Amino acid sequence: MTKAADRKDAHIALALDAAAQSGVDAGFGRVHLDHCALPETNLAAIDINTMFLGKMVSAPVFIGAMTGGTKRADQINAALAEIAHDQNIALAVGSQRASLEGGRSQKNLREIAPNIPLIGNLGGVQLAREGGLDLARRAVDDLHADALAIHLNPLQEAAQLEGETNWVGVAGAIEAAVSQLPCPVIVKEVGAGISPHIANQLFDMGVHAIDVAGLGGTNWTRIETARRTGPDDDAARFAPFLDWGMTSVDCLINIMNARPDAYLIASGGVQNGLDVAKSLWLGASMASMAGAVLRALVGPDNGDINRQNALGEIARWRDQIALSLFLTGASSLEDFKMVPGHVTPL
């Protein structure tokens, strides 16, 4: 396997470890929705279908990017594609760089899930390197992707043994991708969040959506630091930065205050359907579930793939989203955005 592929397999196991979770809460406990004791609506009739990337999906939540580029990752992604197709929700694949470099096509994912939105994925720093835009085109073409997510992970790259820390030109590369790729571009962080200033810059470039991916969920700085096990790897250098970043709730609030028309995706510490609902109430249009699905699919020890567990987890989240609407007296996602509630200050 390539170095990138070796790293991806290590990431799967480490991401399942409780030590990989952020030491800072994502903030959803601060969001309080007013209970409606007299809901003039029928829970069974509540419709949470929504349009995403031009396709109707069954819920405002999708399976977030996790992995790619190895035999084990291919097995996981194939199972996730089957599950997403069954549940009619979107699927975002992990970084396609390792797959493309290793000659491992992921076109089977489109064959497994022909009708759902599929989102490709490439790192911002890789996009900015020579040939990066061609790599992005290959990523889109291989999946027949409905969008390409460009992930921003400067802290993860700094902590990663093989990381790339020359980020000169990444903004220009994103702007070029927006104008030249045949599909919408989504920009996401990987757990440290995106500020209103950067969000404005990205939307001004023409980016379709921003996945805030804030602090509070799977923590890639902790994962990369855990990989620094050699005598010269100096993991202690990154100790003050293990929980660096902005929480998911703060990202959503601050970006929406600065850019009320922003198309935001919530991720980072989204633990259940109620957290999804709170994200929508704060202004997000979609939310992403990754760690919860992975744990349901392979268990805490990265064992055998269990599709039924993952199907059950997604169905549970959908039911929780609908129940959140019912308990606030909302009969639709549009109505839900207007229900009363408040956010407890820090």
List how many beta strands DSSP finds. 12
Question: Which class best fits the helix and strand makeup?
Answer: alpha/beta
What integer is the average pLDDT?
92
Low-pLDDT residue intervals, each spanning 5 or more residues: none
Number of domains: 1
CATH architectural name? Alpha-Beta Barrel
At the fold tier of CATH, the topology name is TIM Barrel
Q: How much of the residues is beta strand, in percent?
A: 5-15%
**Count of alpha/pi helices:** 15
Helix content: 40-55%
Tell me, what's the shape? globular
Task: Describe what is shown at a glance.
The protein is built from 15 helices and twelve strands. By secondary structure, it is α/β, with parallel strands linked by helices. Helix 9 (196-205) packs across helix 11, helix 12 (273-282) crosses helix 14 and helix 13 packs antiparallel against helix 14 (307-327).
